[in-house]
Amino acid sequence: MELLQRAHELAVARKRRQSRALVERAEPGSAEELSLAASVLVELRDPQAALPLARRAVELAPDDWRGHLAVADATYQLRWWGESAAAARRAVELAPEEAAAHRALGVAANRIVGGGPEARREVKRARELGGRDALRAPGRHSPWWILMFVPPLVSAVLLAVRDWPGAVENVLGLLRVVPPALALLYINLPSRAGLTWSERIAEIRVVNEERYGGGGRAARIRAGLVAMPWGCAVAVGAAALEAPAQAGDPLPASVVVPAVLIGGVVLAVLARRNVRLWYGERFLREVFVPSVFVRVHLVAAGALGGGVLLLTLGDASHDSWQVLVVGTVTWFLLGMISTLFLYGPAEPGKKPEKEPADS
Length: 359
Hints:
By secondary structure, this protein is mainly alpha-helical. It has helices spanning 2-12, 16-25, 31-43, 47-60, 65-77, 81-94, 99-109, 116-130, 150-161, 166-187, 197-212, 217-246, 253-288, 292-313, 318-342.
Protein backbone atom coordinates (compact mmCIF):
# COMPACT_ATOMS: atom_id res chain seq x y z
CA MET A 1 0.00 0.00 0.00
CA GLU A 2 2.84 2.40 0.84
CA LEU A 3 4.34 1.75 -2.58
CA LEU A 4 1.09 2.71 -4.31
CA GLN A 5 0.66 5.79 -2.13
CA ARG A 6 4.13 6.93 -3.10
CA ALA A 7 3.32 6.22 -6.75
CA HIS A 8 0.22 8.40 -6.46
CA GLU A 9 2.24 11.25 -4.95
CA LEU A 10 4.75 11.03 -7.82
CA ALA A 11 1.96 10.94 -10.40
CA VAL A 12 0.38 14.09 -8.97
CA ALA A 13 3.84 15.71 -9.01
CA ARG A 14 4.08 14.75 -12.74
CA LYS A 15 7.03 12.42 -12.16
CA ARG A 16 5.43 9.92 -14.48
CA ARG A 17 8.16 7.40 -15.19
CA GLN A 18 9.00 7.03 -11.51
CA SER A 19 5.34 6.63 -10.67
CA ARG A 20 4.84 4.04 -13.42
CA ALA A 21 7.84 2.06 -12.19
CA LEU A 22 6.38 1.86 -8.67
CA VAL A 23 2.96 0.78 -9.95
CA GLU A 24 4.55 -2.00 -11.99
CA ARG A 25 6.46 -3.18 -8.91
CA ALA A 26 3.34 -3.23 -6.76
CA GLU A 27 1.12 -6.29 -6.67
CA PRO A 28 -2.31 -5.03 -5.61
CA GLY A 29 -4.56 -7.74 -4.24
CA SER A 30 -7.23 -6.14 -2.08
CA ALA A 31 -10.01 -3.91 -3.35
CA GLU A 32 -8.42 -0.90 -1.67
CA GLU A 33 -5.06 -1.54 -3.32
CA LEU A 34 -6.66 -2.12 -6.72
CA SER A 35 -8.62 1.13 -6.42
CA LEU A 36 -5.48 3.04 -5.50
CA ALA A 37 -3.48 1.47 -8.34
CA ALA A 38 -6.26 2.40 -10.76
CA SER A 39 -6.31 5.97 -9.47
CA VAL A 40 -2.54 6.22 -10.04
CA LEU A 41 -2.96 5.05 -13.63
CA VAL A 42 -5.80 7.54 -14.14
CA GLU A 43 -3.50 10.26 -12.85
CA LEU A 44 -0.96 9.07 -15.43
CA ARG A 45 -3.71 9.32 -18.08
CA ASP A 46 -3.63 5.61 -18.78
CA PRO A 47 -7.33 4.69 -18.46
CA GLN A 48 -6.92 1.59 -20.59
CA ALA A 49 -4.74 0.02 -17.89
CA ALA A 50 -6.70 1.56 -15.00
CA LEU A 51 -10.15 0.28 -15.96
CA PRO A 52 -9.53 -3.48 -15.48
CA LEU A 53 -8.05 -2.83 -12.03
CA ALA A 54 -10.97 -0.59 -11.08
CA ARG A 55 -13.53 -3.14 -12.23
CA ARG A 56 -11.72 -5.87 -10.31
CA ALA A 57 -11.88 -3.67 -7.20
CA VAL A 58 -15.65 -3.29 -7.66
CA GLU A 59 -16.04 -7.05 -8.01
CA LEU A 60 -14.13 -7.66 -4.77
CA ALA A 61 -15.86 -4.91 -2.79
CA PRO A 62 -19.06 -3.70 -4.48
CA ASP A 63 -19.89 -1.51 -1.48
CA ASP A 64 -16.55 0.34 -1.48
CA TRP A 65 -17.07 3.75 -3.10
CA ARG A 66 -13.40 4.05 -4.11
CA GLY A 67 -13.67 1.29 -6.69
CA HIS A 68 -16.69 2.92 -8.31
CA LEU A 69 -14.88 6.27 -8.29
CA ALA A 70 -11.90 4.70 -10.07
CA VAL A 71 -14.25 3.23 -12.69
CA ALA A 72 -15.90 6.64 -13.13
CA ASP A 73 -12.58 8.45 -13.59
CA ALA A 74 -11.17 5.83 -15.98
CA THR A 75 -14.29 5.71 -18.16
CA TYR A 76 -14.44 9.51 -18.16
CA GLN A 77 -10.95 9.67 -19.67
CA LEU A 78 -12.10 7.10 -22.22
CA ARG A 79 -15.03 9.43 -23.04
CA TRP A 80 -17.61 6.85 -22.03
CA TRP A 81 -19.80 9.47 -20.40
CA GLY A 82 -22.80 7.28 -19.60
CA GLU A 83 -20.79 4.58 -17.88
CA SER A 84 -18.77 7.21 -16.03
CA ALA A 85 -21.91 8.92 -14.72
CA ALA A 86 -23.42 5.60 -13.63
CA ALA A 87 -20.30 4.62 -11.69
CA ALA A 88 -20.07 8.06 -10.12
CA ARG A 89 -23.72 7.92 -9.03
CA ARG A 90 -23.02 4.64 -7.28
CA ALA A 91 -20.01 6.20 -5.56
CA VAL A 92 -22.18 9.11 -4.39
CA GLU A 93 -24.78 6.68 -3.04
CA LEU A 94 -22.13 4.81 -1.05
CA ALA A 95 -20.24 7.90 0.16
CA PRO A 96 -22.46 11.00 0.00
CA GLU A 97 -19.97 13.02 2.05
CA GLU A 98 -16.99 12.41 -0.27
CA ALA A 99 -16.24 15.41 -2.46
CA ALA A 100 -14.41 13.30 -5.09
CA ALA A 101 -17.54 11.25 -5.79
CA HIS A 102 -19.63 14.39 -6.37
CA ARG A 103 -16.87 15.85 -8.56
CA ALA A 104 -16.79 12.73 -10.74
CA LEU A 105 -20.57 12.75 -11.15
CA GLY A 106 -20.58 16.47 -11.91
CA VAL A 107 -18.02 16.33 -14.71
CA ALA A 108 -19.57 13.19 -16.24
CA ALA A 109 -23.12 14.56 -16.13
CA ASN A 110 -21.89 17.75 -17.78
CA ARG A 111 -20.99 15.68 -20.86
CA ILE A 112 -24.45 14.16 -21.21
CA VAL A 113 -27.26 15.89 -23.05
CA GLY A 114 -29.68 17.23 -20.47
CA GLY A 115 -27.27 16.64 -17.60
CA GLY A 116 -26.51 20.30 -16.93
CA PRO A 117 -28.67 20.74 -13.79
CA GLU A 118 -27.29 17.58 -12.20
CA ALA A 119 -23.73 18.59 -13.11
CA ARG A 120 -24.08 22.01 -11.50
CA ARG A 121 -25.63 20.54 -8.39
CA GLU A 122 -22.90 17.94 -7.95
CA VAL A 123 -20.04 20.35 -8.61
CA LYS A 124 -21.52 22.75 -6.06
CA ARG A 125 -21.76 19.94 -3.52
CA ALA A 126 -18.17 18.87 -4.19
CA ARG A 127 -16.98 22.43 -3.57
CA GLU A 128 -18.97 22.60 -0.33
CA LEU A 129 -17.38 19.39 0.91
CA GLY A 130 -13.80 19.90 -0.20
CA GLY A 131 -13.30 23.44 -1.45
CA ARG A 132 -11.87 24.36 -4.84
CA ASP A 133 -9.16 21.70 -4.57
CA ALA A 134 -11.87 19.04 -4.65
CA LEU A 135 -12.77 20.07 -8.21
CA ARG A 136 -9.38 19.03 -9.57
CA ALA A 137 -9.84 16.23 -12.10
CA PRO A 138 -7.20 13.48 -11.92
CA GLY A 139 -4.74 13.42 -14.79
CA ARG A 140 -5.61 16.85 -16.07
CA HIS A 141 -3.19 18.45 -18.52
CA SER A 142 -0.83 21.19 -17.50
CA PRO A 143 -2.21 24.55 -18.69
CA TRP A 144 1.17 25.55 -20.13
CA TRP A 145 0.57 23.71 -23.39
CA ILE A 146 -1.94 26.43 -24.30
CA LEU A 147 1.03 28.75 -24.85
CA MET A 148 1.71 26.74 -28.01
CA PHE A 149 -1.24 28.58 -29.58
CA VAL A 150 0.36 32.00 -29.07
CA PRO A 151 2.51 31.82 -32.26
CA PRO A 152 -0.53 31.14 -34.51
CA LEU A 153 -2.37 34.11 -33.01
CA VAL A 154 0.64 36.39 -33.46
CA SER A 155 1.07 35.10 -37.01
CA ALA A 156 -2.57 35.79 -37.87
CA VAL A 157 -2.33 39.34 -36.53
CA LEU A 158 0.88 40.07 -38.43
CA LEU A 159 -0.57 38.75 -41.69
CA ALA A 160 -3.69 40.86 -41.20
CA VAL A 161 -2.01 44.21 -40.48
CA ARG A 162 0.26 44.41 -43.53
CA ASP A 163 1.75 42.67 -46.56
CA TRP A 164 5.01 40.79 -46.07
CA PRO A 165 7.62 39.42 -48.48
CA GLY A 166 6.94 35.92 -49.75
CA ALA A 167 9.52 34.21 -47.55
CA VAL A 168 8.20 35.93 -44.42
CA GLU A 169 4.62 34.98 -45.29
CA ASN A 170 5.69 31.34 -45.66
CA VAL A 171 7.29 31.37 -42.20
CA LEU A 172 4.22 33.02 -40.68
CA GLY A 173 2.05 30.43 -42.38
CA LEU A 174 4.06 27.63 -40.79
CA LEU A 175 3.66 29.28 -37.39
CA ARG A 176 -0.10 28.96 -37.79
CA VAL A 177 0.07 25.19 -38.27
CA VAL A 178 3.14 23.68 -36.62
CA PRO A 179 2.75 24.81 -32.96
CA PRO A 180 -0.85 23.55 -32.57
CA ALA A 181 0.16 20.24 -34.15
CA LEU A 182 3.09 19.96 -31.75
CA ALA A 183 0.83 20.82 -28.82
CA LEU A 184 -1.66 18.09 -29.74
CA LEU A 185 1.17 15.60 -30.17
CA TYR A 186 2.73 16.60 -26.85
CA ILE A 187 -0.40 16.19 -24.73
CA ASN A 188 -1.01 12.74 -26.26
CA LEU A 189 2.55 11.40 -26.01
CA PRO A 190 2.49 7.93 -24.41
CA SER A 191 5.65 8.86 -22.51
CA ARG A 192 3.45 11.15 -20.41
CA ALA A 193 1.93 7.94 -19.02
CA GLY A 194 5.30 6.21 -18.78
CA LEU A 195 4.61 4.10 -21.88
CA THR A 196 6.05 3.55 -25.34
CA TRP A 197 3.93 4.05 -28.47
CA SER A 198 3.59 0.28 -28.98
CA GLU A 199 2.43 -0.23 -25.38
CA ARG A 200 -0.11 2.58 -25.65
CA ILE A 201 -1.52 1.27 -28.93
CA ALA A 202 -1.69 -2.27 -27.55
CA GLU A 203 -3.68 -1.04 -24.53
CA ILE A 204 -6.10 0.89 -26.71
CA ARG A 205 -6.55 -2.11 -29.00
CA VAL A 206 -7.40 -4.41 -26.08
CA VAL A 207 -10.03 -2.00 -24.73
CA ASN A 208 -11.56 -1.40 -28.16
CA GLU A 209 -11.60 -5.10 -28.96
CA GLU A 210 -13.39 -5.87 -25.70
CA ARG A 211 -15.89 -3.06 -26.19
CA TYR A 212 -16.70 -3.34 -29.89
CA GLY A 213 -15.59 -6.84 -30.93
CA GLY A 214 -18.90 -8.43 -29.97
CA GLY A 215 -21.01 -6.29 -32.27
CA GLY A 216 -24.09 -4.31 -31.29
CA ARG A 217 -25.30 -0.80 -32.05
CA ALA A 218 -22.27 0.94 -30.52
CA ALA A 219 -19.94 -1.27 -32.61
CA ARG A 220 -21.87 -0.46 -35.80
CA ILE A 221 -21.62 3.25 -35.09
CA ARG A 222 -17.91 2.86 -34.36
CA ALA A 223 -17.43 1.09 -37.71
CA GLY A 224 -19.07 4.06 -39.40
CA LEU A 225 -16.86 6.52 -37.57
CA VAL A 226 -13.75 4.56 -38.49
CA ALA A 227 -14.75 4.35 -42.16
CA MET A 228 -15.69 8.03 -42.45
CA PRO A 229 -12.19 9.54 -42.88
CA TRP A 230 -11.27 6.94 -45.50
CA GLY A 231 -14.38 7.76 -47.51
CA CYS A 232 -13.52 11.44 -47.28
CA ALA A 233 -9.96 10.62 -48.42
CA VAL A 234 -11.39 8.95 -51.53
CA ALA A 235 -13.43 12.07 -52.27
CA VAL A 236 -10.37 14.30 -51.83
CA GLY A 237 -8.31 12.10 -54.15
CA ALA A 238 -11.03 12.11 -56.78
CA ALA A 239 -11.34 15.88 -56.53
CA ALA A 240 -7.58 16.25 -57.06
CA LEU A 241 -7.87 14.29 -60.32
CA GLU A 242 -11.00 16.16 -61.41
CA ALA A 243 -9.77 19.70 -60.73
CA PRO A 244 -7.45 20.00 -63.78
CA ALA A 245 -10.19 18.70 -66.09
CA GLN A 246 -12.70 21.13 -64.66
CA ALA A 247 -10.21 23.93 -65.36
CA GLY A 248 -9.99 22.81 -68.98
CA ASP A 249 -6.68 20.95 -68.83
CA PRO A 250 -7.43 17.29 -67.95
CA LEU A 251 -4.64 15.01 -66.84
CA PRO A 252 -3.51 12.36 -69.33
CA ALA A 253 -4.78 8.81 -69.01
CA SER A 254 -1.22 7.64 -68.28
CA VAL A 255 -1.45 9.58 -65.00
CA VAL A 256 -5.10 9.10 -64.08
CA VAL A 257 -5.38 5.32 -64.57
CA PRO A 258 -2.40 4.37 -62.34
CA ALA A 259 -3.44 7.01 -59.78
CA VAL A 260 -6.95 5.57 -59.48
CA LEU A 261 -5.93 1.91 -59.44
CA ILE A 262 -2.85 2.20 -57.23
CA GLY A 263 -4.41 4.85 -55.00
CA GLY A 264 -7.50 2.70 -54.43
CA VAL A 265 -5.43 -0.34 -53.47
CA VAL A 266 -3.20 1.70 -51.15
CA LEU A 267 -6.19 3.28 -49.38
CA ALA A 268 -7.86 -0.13 -48.94
CA VAL A 269 -4.68 -1.67 -47.49
CA LEU A 270 -4.06 1.27 -45.17
CA ALA A 271 -7.66 1.26 -43.96
CA ARG A 272 -7.50 -2.47 -43.20
CA ARG A 273 -4.20 -2.15 -41.37
CA ASN A 274 -5.46 0.86 -39.42
CA VAL A 275 -8.58 -0.96 -38.24
CA ARG A 276 -6.59 -4.05 -37.25
CA LEU A 277 -4.02 -1.93 -35.40
CA TRP A 278 -6.51 0.01 -33.26
CA TYR A 279 -9.45 -2.41 -32.97
CA GLY A 280 -8.11 -5.92 -33.53
CA GLU A 281 -8.83 -8.73 -35.98
CA ARG A 282 -12.22 -9.65 -34.51
CA PHE A 283 -13.66 -6.16 -34.99
CA LEU A 284 -12.24 -6.02 -38.51
CA ARG A 285 -13.79 -9.31 -39.64
CA GLU A 286 -17.04 -9.43 -37.68
CA VAL A 287 -18.03 -5.76 -37.48
CA PHE A 288 -16.14 -3.52 -39.88
CA VAL A 289 -16.14 -5.56 -43.10
CA PRO A 290 -19.85 -6.61 -42.90
CA SER A 291 -20.95 -3.06 -41.95
CA VAL A 292 -23.55 -1.54 -44.28
CA PHE A 293 -21.89 1.82 -43.76
CA VAL A 294 -18.54 0.46 -44.96
CA ARG A 295 -20.16 -1.10 -48.00
CA VAL A 296 -21.78 2.22 -48.88
CA HIS A 297 -18.33 3.82 -48.74
CA LEU A 298 -16.93 1.10 -51.02
CA VAL A 299 -19.73 1.62 -53.55
CA ALA A 300 -19.18 5.38 -53.48
CA ALA A 301 -15.43 4.90 -53.91
CA GLY A 302 -16.01 2.64 -56.89
CA ALA A 303 -18.44 5.13 -58.43
CA LEU A 304 -16.04 8.06 -58.03
CA GLY A 305 -13.00 6.14 -59.26
CA GLY A 306 -14.95 4.61 -62.14
CA GLY A 307 -16.37 7.99 -63.09
CA VAL A 308 -12.92 9.56 -63.24
CA LEU A 309 -11.64 6.68 -65.41
CA LEU A 310 -14.61 6.74 -67.79
CA LEU A 311 -14.47 10.50 -68.31
CA THR A 312 -10.71 10.44 -68.77
CA LEU A 313 -10.72 7.59 -71.29
CA GLY A 314 -13.85 8.84 -73.05
CA ASP A 315 -12.72 12.41 -73.76
CA ALA A 316 -15.67 13.85 -71.84
CA SER A 317 -16.98 17.39 -72.06
CA HIS A 318 -16.52 20.10 -69.43
CA ASP A 319 -20.15 19.70 -68.31
CA SER A 320 -19.61 16.00 -67.61
CA TRP A 321 -16.64 16.80 -65.40
CA GLN A 322 -18.70 19.46 -63.66
CA VAL A 323 -21.37 16.89 -62.79
CA LEU A 324 -18.74 14.52 -61.40
CA VAL A 325 -17.19 17.31 -59.32
CA VAL A 326 -20.59 18.13 -57.82
CA GLY A 327 -21.08 14.45 -57.01
CA THR A 328 -17.67 14.25 -55.38
CA VAL A 329 -18.30 17.28 -53.18
CA THR A 330 -21.73 15.94 -52.26
CA TRP A 331 -20.28 12.60 -51.21
CA PHE A 332 -17.54 14.30 -49.21
CA LEU A 333 -20.16 16.20 -47.21
CA LEU A 334 -22.42 13.17 -46.82
CA GLY A 335 -19.46 11.05 -45.77
CA MET A 336 -18.77 13.42 -42.90
CA ILE A 337 -22.34 13.71 -41.59
CA SER A 338 -23.95 10.40 -42.54
CA THR A 339 -22.97 8.70 -39.29
CA LEU A 340 -25.27 11.12 -37.48
CA PHE A 341 -28.42 9.84 -39.17
CA LEU A 342 -27.61 6.42 -40.62
CA TYR A 343 -28.47 4.50 -37.44
CA GLY A 344 -30.59 7.12 -35.71
CA PRO A 345 -31.39 7.26 -32.00
CA ALA A 346 -31.71 4.22 -29.79
CA GLU A 347 -34.93 2.32 -30.28
CA PRO A 348 -37.67 3.14 -27.74
CA GLY A 349 -37.88 0.69 -24.89
CA LYS A 350 -34.32 -0.52 -25.32
CA LYS A 351 -31.55 0.30 -22.93
CA PRO A 352 -29.00 2.57 -24.68
CA GLU A 353 -25.63 1.02 -25.28
CA LYS A 354 -22.43 2.56 -24.11
CA GLU A 355 -21.15 5.53 -26.03
CA PRO A 356 -18.38 4.97 -28.56
CA ALA A 357 -14.83 5.63 -27.38
CA ASP A 358 -12.20 7.65 -29.30
CA SER A 359 -9.15 5.88 -30.49
